[in-house]
Specification:
Layout lengths: L7 H22 L3 H21 L7 H17 L13 E2 L2 E2 H27 L7 H20 L23 H13 L5 H12 L4
Antiparallel strand pairs: 1-2
Helix pairs in contact: 1-2, 2-3, 4-5
Length: about 210
């Protein structure tokens, strides 16, 4: 006598479980951040699907999968929060843009810039995409400000290539002076003079 054929629900349930195992193995073997993120996104989405099909024995499995999915999608979208490596577009000859900003603005100016981003991401929360990702970005910059002013852990410290901040002498991007010259041509007195006056007012020195 042949065994009964599993019903559609059981077959689908088993297929999803197999997909979870496969995506977990894929995430472990992926060679690039993007490939790992794609595998982790699949793994998290599969976990969410399994949680919908049957109760998970692991407390908080659904919530953890949502966090993992948001972080993986951030990598795939090119967002910075959640990345395990520094995005190439923010690598300025081996120095991260955030560190160059701190070089140029000092700890107080850098922290103020971080708080600008905290307010921005909280105000736009959920209006441009994933609300959880906006929360994560706001927390990232809040922690970055705390690191600069009070020595809190750097939110980038999880990166394998991370090195703690050490002040260096950095130059303002040359493109800035091109833009200032263009502004000067449109509105005389609004280009380099304004830029230099702002820096003098904030820091007491000229670039």
């Amino acid at each position: 006598m042949r065994p009964p054929t599993p019903g559609p629900a059981a077959t689908f349930d088993g297929a999803v479980a197999d997909l979870l195992v496969g995506s977990s193995a894929l995430a472990a073997q992926a060679g690039t951040p993007e490939a790992r993120a794609a595998a982790k996104a699949l793994q998290a989405a599969t976990t969410l699907l399994l949680c919908a099909l049957r109760p998970s024995p692991i407390v908080g499995a659904r919530e953890a999968a949502l966090v993992d999915l948001g972080a993986a999608l951030a990598v795939l979208r090119g967002d910075d929060v959640g990345r395990d490596e520094l995005p190439a577009r923010y690598d300025m000859d081996g120095r991260e843009t955030l560190d160059r900003m701190r070089d140029l603005l000092g700890p107080n100016g850098y922290a103020a810039g971080c708080m600008f981003n905290v307010i921005k991401y909280l105000d736009r929360r959920g209006k441009k995409g994933d609300a959880a990702l906006d929360d994560e970005k706001a927390l990232f910059y809040l922690q970055a400000a705390g690191e600069a002013l009070f020595g809190l852990p750097d939110p980038r410290a999880h990166r394998p290539t991370f090195t703690p901040y050490v002040e260096q002498r950095s130059a303002w991007p040359s493109r800035l002076y091109d833009l200032l010259d263009r502004l000067e041509g449109v509105k005389p007195g609004r280009g380099r003079d304004v830029f230099e006056n702002v820096l003098t007012a904030l820091y007491g020195w000229n670039p």
